[in-house]
Amino acid sequence: MAKNELDDALELVDSEIKKIGISRREAFKLAGLGSAAYLMGGTSEAQAATVAQASEAKGKILIIGGGLAGMSTAARLSSSLTTPDITIVEPLSNSVSYQAGTTLVASGVYEKSDIVYNTKDFLPAGVKLIKDKAVEFNPDANKVVLGSGETLSYDFLIIAAGLTLDFGRIKGLEEVGDAYTAGDASKILKAFGDSGITSMYNIDTATETWTQMQKFVDKAKNGEKVKGIFSHPDTAIKCGGAPKKIMYLTNSRLVEAGARDNAELTYYVNSGKMFSVKEYHDAIVKQFEARDFKWNYKHNLTTVDIQNKTAIFDKRWDEKGPYDEDLEEYSMITKHQEVEVPFDFMHITPPMKAPDEIGSSAVGSGKGWVPVNKETLQHVKYKNIFSLGDIAAVPMGKTGGSVRKQYKVLVDNLIAAMEGKELNAKYAGYTVCPLITDIGKVMLAEFDWTKKPTPSFPLDPTQERYIWWLLKVYMLKPMTQYGMLSGKA
Question: Pfam families recorded for this chain (predicted)?
Fold first, then answer.
């Protein structure tokens, strides 16, 4: 982001927060963003907040994954150890791309160039980067084997490899197989073609999503009656609000074109609710009703017929079964029905999983994710292994906002482990989802393991606000670039 753009954004933010009678500094402090205050003109405060007594603990630290989680952790470790010995293994040259911006690319607010960075530009001084992939793990011997065949040893291992987009699990997309957000999109784009099927979960397919969305809007604008459908799978996913965001933004573009009356927009979600936190669920339902959206719970996408532009969902519901005299209650039987849905435009949120080479290894778990203590982020079996971000088996929050809290906890606990001390830092499950509900409006959903709203700001968190749009579109990207990736924010 250019300096003048940031200045313009700050002027807008200032004008909004003055309406509620607080200063910029107070606003960002209340929003939990005080440590990134140097972006907002608070350089001395930021420096004072990040100065700490560096530890003299020694050990060879290996980080698997050079995305936001891995690189931020490396940066903070570098400034927290007097003699850091850190190596990052990452196969992609653009692994630290601003993934939270794919929704905005998909809706024409951002360009691809706004969110793609060069990994090397954010590599902390003194940290070694190996452009390769970890394919074998031997935690008993403290060794990792790379795709090249090279074996690396470590004293401490941090797994921050992100997750895999499991397109191949959907019938009709088997040829796509596994994909990655910042990885090659050629198989996905070839499979989708010009069918109206899209997915913003890869950077290049997010760009194509905007192309397909415009075609969809043009059809409606020209008088055609069109149908747009949006799926949410039966697995944990990164940014659980994103499948709804893209639907909201499609609606915004239709309204903008004066074509909303010609489009039917329907959301198909695998779960039985819109959001895990009741207050946000209720708010979203009201927003859906106000926008004349349709929705169906307990529908999981299983098949896509690209040629005929139809999708098949597994619809499920529970029915009363036989009566159990011992328990004095009826058993419940889950029923299934295939539901075929035609579409003109379809956004697929693919099933997601840990990369097989990690999830199915000795450091993985039966469910694939890396099993860690949800508070300390230490591996449940191997005490010199830690994990964070999308790949960690943490109950909620596969978001950048979660990582912003996790990486500081992990660094404190890793250094404690290196020093032979107790792990006292605790991750409280904080998650933030800036839920874009319109172009110019965002509902800032903050919560933790209590599954209750935990707002950082003295405003009703269930309300859509312009100020949160400014935060999402203008502030969070530079905070990520120059705050988290420097290990400070």
Answer: Pyr_redox_2
| Region for residue 289 given its phi and psi (left: phi exceeds 0; alpha: psi -120 to 50; beta: otherwise) | alpha
Q: Which helix (H) or strand (E) holds 25?
A: helix 24-30
Q: What is the pLDDT of residue 20?
A: 64
Asked if residues 46 and 486 have their Cβ atoms less than 8 Å apart, the reply is: no
433 tagged catalytic: yes
Cα separation, 172 vs 308, whole angstroms: 11
289 confidence band (pLDDT: 50, 70, 90): very high
Catalytic residue, from 63, 89, 144, 239: name it.
239
Containing structural domain, residue 176 = 165-351
**Catalytic residue (one of 13, 188, 237, 433):** 433
pLDDT, residue 1, reads 42
Question: Is residue 464 assigned to a domain?
Answer: yes
272 within domain boundaries: yes
Token digits for 110?
């951002």
Residue where a domain terminates, one of 351, 381, 416: 351
> Final residue of a domain: which of 300, 334, 351?
351
Is 75 noted as a catalytic residue in this protein? no
Alpha-carbon distances, residue 108 vs 62, 87, 103, 111, 214 (angstroms): 38, 37, 9, 7, 9
In whole angstroms, give the CA distance from residue 107 to residue 395.
Answer: 30
